[in-house]
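FYI - complex with NAP, inputs then prediction.
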Amino acid sequence: MTQDSTNGTNGVPKVNGINGANGVNVANGTNGTHTNGTNGTTSSTKAASFTKINEDLDYDVLIIGAGLSGIYSMYRMAQLGLRAKVLEAGSSEGGTWFWNRYPGARFDSESYSYIFSFSDEILKEWDWTEHFSPQPETLKYIEFVTRKLDLRKHMQFDTRIRRAQFVEGSNSWKLTDDQGRTYTSRYLITAIGILNEPTLPNIPGVHDYKGEAWHTARWPQGGENQLQGKRVGIIGTGATAIQTIQTIADKVGSLTVFQRTPNWTAPLRNDKISKEEMEEIRKDYPEIFRKCAESYSCFIHVGDNNDTVATPVEERERHWEHLYEQRGFTKVLAISSDIYTNHEANALYSAFHEKKIRARINDPKVADLLIPTNHGFGTRRTPLESGYYEVFNQDNVKLVDIRSNPIERITATGVHTTDGNDYDVDVLVYATGFDAVTGSFNAIEFEGIGGTKLRDVWGEGIQTFLGLTVKNFPNMFMIMGPHQMFGNIPRSIEYAVQWTAEFIEWAVENQVTYCEATDEGVAAWTEHVHECGKGLLANEVDSWMTGVNKNLAHKQKRSMTRYNGPAPGYRKRCEEVKGREYSDFVLKKAGEA
Ligand code: NAP
């Protein structure tokens, strides 16, 4: 690795010889399952005449990204009979699940709730083998979906889009890829994910290291086997690091974990799914997706509004003990909502988890280091673990606290800390996260009306209308853009795609070729997003969810990256816009000035 082996535009690491990426974390839970994903009302005559209006353009619709967002978008566009194309940087579909192949990568939401709900046929035919699917199985599922819906023929891989310009004369989009090829369309759907641009730590010497250095999001083929008996160092202790650490600890010769901030984490309790159990789950799909549709952030786990502090201690603890024994996010989501808004309630629940963690770690000094002190339980995205804490009881594992004793530099052979210690390693793993949410957009030069740069528009704070559109960027729809729900991501994706597809269907029916958010719409929506976030402890804390990434060359202010209100409320507002026949937008038909 050399000093300049980052990609200039967005500080993307080139640790494994790959420059950044494209992809998606998965979507919705709106209205249960439906088979064909479209209202089926667009006549082929209307589609044909819409396509005729666009005949000077390569496509009616271009979609960037072949993760779950891009796959479902493409499906809906094909259903409408439109000329659409998916352009994908990776060599295959899958998005997040294509890129993140590090050891132990898996869902930490129940597999059967974290997938597409729109096709009964797919739900009928696909069997999950674990409650929390490992990455290889999830990728196989995504490939199965793409095959089943015959979508690969609409996808162009190894195509990294670098620039997206709105062409005012023709009210169209022009995309340019990294080989200089261009693609034009009337509408543009961005399906580029929220955790897609990996970042290396801003530590001096990162590029001086001479051993193997891998970012978890660019894990090399066969990498896990290469770790056997090696001295491995890992920087980071987020969700990704936790899965990696617990998976490799007993395979490597030694593991040194460089931790800046400990995270609260609790047991995942994964298990195999038998054939019989899968049949029960299949029968339960309508109920699963109904629960997701009705819940605050689209999960199957639902909390309550009890007063945590006022609840008698024994009753409270009994309830928490019960939740602790359950699978998945139960202990994160099926709790009282005041744990997320009230410092005292949160401190009580944090103390409960502190006890649980301490009981699993032999050395109290190590336990001290693993207990978060700068944020409460659940105020950052809570990773779930399987044997993570026990790893630190192993003789071959060392925890280095780099908050009190920072890394001074990366050397040719390993890591040098300010106390003068050198940690020489054969493989250095960067589990240092992503330039989240806006990073995916900043990796492409988005240029709207009058040359407006999206990077500049959001530089002063994210502004959107419905999290789906941006003023000055007409005809562009964002699937998993900022200001959307980041809870159960497949549920959010499904809804955003559904809303966008319904708009495009309406545009085709009405031969509408221009759609732009207004200043008033953006101001009101952005204000609403900020209002929803008020009082949430999570918004007082630094994390990728609040837009903080200290590794970026440019300073980034803490920002409201996601919609913090209830998902049903979000969808109601979007449906109201649809109900008003999209009159909240500036709309033009072909030929209108
Ligand atoms: P992350 O949560 O942002 O964690 C990055 C880690 O790297 C943090 O521990 C951070 O420390 C550390 N770090 C970053 N820069 C550093 C530096 N310069 N020096 C020292 N340490 C540094 O990233 P992630 O773990 O990849 O997870 C991101 C998100 O992906 C998760 O929150 C989750 O939403 C998603 N994810 C999901 C799954 C799943 O579904 N199962 C699995 C993995 C990830 P600080 O905290 O001090 O900054």
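The chain has two domains: 36-197+436-514, 235-285+297-430. The longest helix spans residues 489-510.
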